[in-house]
Amino acid sequence: MTALIDTFWDRIDDVRAGLLAPEGERPVPMAPQPDRKANALWFITAEGTAAHDGAKGGAKASFQVADPKANLYATIEGTLTEVHDEQKLDEMWNVFAAAWFENGREDSKVRLVKFTPLHAEVWATEKTVGYLYEIAKATVTDDTPDGGEHGHVTFAAAA
């Protein structure tokens, strides 16, 4: 499954949003910022949100991805932690995060949350043309289309 983990990290870079849910909370749309070296998905959120509150307590959480442009679908289980690292926050800061805060990066409610994936079920599908070919082939041959890679993966601890 090493190849599927590599595919996951390659494609999660192209995911613009998914649904983050600390344990016991409803899922909310969040934009992941992947960091393979740290085995992390970073999120910028506001003080008092479910993501922030869960991160303060090191909550179990899930992140759901369904992104046809990235050809990635995944259910990821892991943990949330709040990180107080101004340099990392500066590195992660972007125009999309700025739009949510009245005072931009200097807003006192800005919080950095680290999601550490532990395990996931991942589907890495074919590009549209390849998928359409598989559907056409299956229709003609009565075979099942090859939708791409699928499996359960366990993530390694950060290096």
UniProtKB/TrEMBL annotation:
InterPro entries: Split_barrel_FMN-bd, Stress-Dev_Protein, YdaG_split_barrel_FMN-bd
Chain ranges of the General stress protein FMN-binding split barrel domain: 6-146
Highest taxon above the source species: Bacteria
Gene3D superfamilies: Electron Transport, Fmn-binding Protein, Chain A
Protein name: Pyridoxamine 5'-phosphate oxidase family protein
Organism: Ponticoccus alexandrii
